[in-house]
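Journal club prep, notes for RB
We'll compare a predicted complex against what the paper describes. Inputs for the dTDP-4-keto-6-deoxyglucose case:
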Amino acid sequence: MKKVLITGGAGFIGSHVVRLFVNKYPEYQIYNLDALTYAGNLESLKDIEKAANYTFLKADINNSQAIEDLFMEFAFDNIIHLAAESHVDRSINDPMIFVKTNVIGTVNLLNAVRKFWGPNFDNNKRFYHISTDEVYGSLGTEGLFTEKTPYSPNSPYAASKASSDHFVRSYGETYNLPYVISNCSNNYGPNQFPEKLIPLFISNIIENKSLPLYGDGNYTRDWLFVIDHAKAIDLIFHKGLNKSTYNIGGFNEWKNLDLVKVLCEIMDVKLNRQKGASAKLITHIEDRPGHDKRYAIDATKINKELGWEPSVTFREGLEKTVDWYLENSEWMQNIVSGKYQKYHMD
Ligand SMILES: Cc1cn([C@H]2C[C@H](O)[C@@H](COP(=O)(O)OP(=O)(O)O[C@H]3O[C@H](C)C(=O)[C@H](O)[C@H]3O)O2)c(=O)[nH]c1=O
């Protein structure tokens, strides 16, 4: 029986990974370790919280003693590490928390792994580090990020993730830690905290608030449906080559302005509003400092080696996402107001 520790399992991507693993692998014990910061909540996992193979552990990866105590108690033999501060704008305002959680938190986990799994790591153990395509920096109009693209992070968030990737690789080289890393593009889907572009704009359209688009909106991102990302993580965890990296993208590049226009069209229909009503809310605002122009992923490696490809079109994924937010307005209000945090402290 595998004992899989999933860090950040109460967060957006993490909750989808936890659900997939709990449901698909009843023979594994899944431990969800999360600090329950502003972006994490257990409401997203209500459907699986009573499963026999699921345990929630409230802890902060910044606390090395707490992490060691948990290793001692539960003897995890595999880790999927998703816990991270993830919002670029927050990293611009307050880089230090990104250093603490993303860099020091990752090193704390690596040290625990070294202590409890080393010095002779067996091949059934694996440290799987989830990262981002932002480590590669910004592309011009041509080209794609491959696994060989040199790192060139621009935001404090991207720098912190690049650093954590380097630490994981360095533990692989120095101590022979078995690891795998994946770098994904922009995720979207149910349960995403409404600070990221898509859920923020869905929320603002519902409330008839303006849609703050940075600069001219001609910035390009590749969009990946979170459930497809969770499936890719499952494949990489089980079949990815030791000490290797996989890029995960949706083969789905959009300029922000074009994406927002499609979202507005969908919202007009779903909310029975006049055609064009939501698009009137688009407001160009001052640009994000150091705004990366374009991210685009070459996902050929994961496709060829592991047979992964996205299962939904962008239109289908967006519709599913919009439907979820419309059906879960209470979740949205509670997460924004911090009610879930207060509730977990009771
Ligand atoms: C929140 C917001 C965003 N934007 C623009 C900025 C970006 O060009 C694009 C997406 O922004 P967002 O903040 O949603 O995501 P990125 O900055 O691309 O980064 C995201 O994707 C990577 C892979 C991660 O690893 C990050 O964790 C994740 O946050 O929309 C606006 O124009 N207005 C807004 O209010």
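Talking point for the session: The chain has a mean pLDDT of 96.
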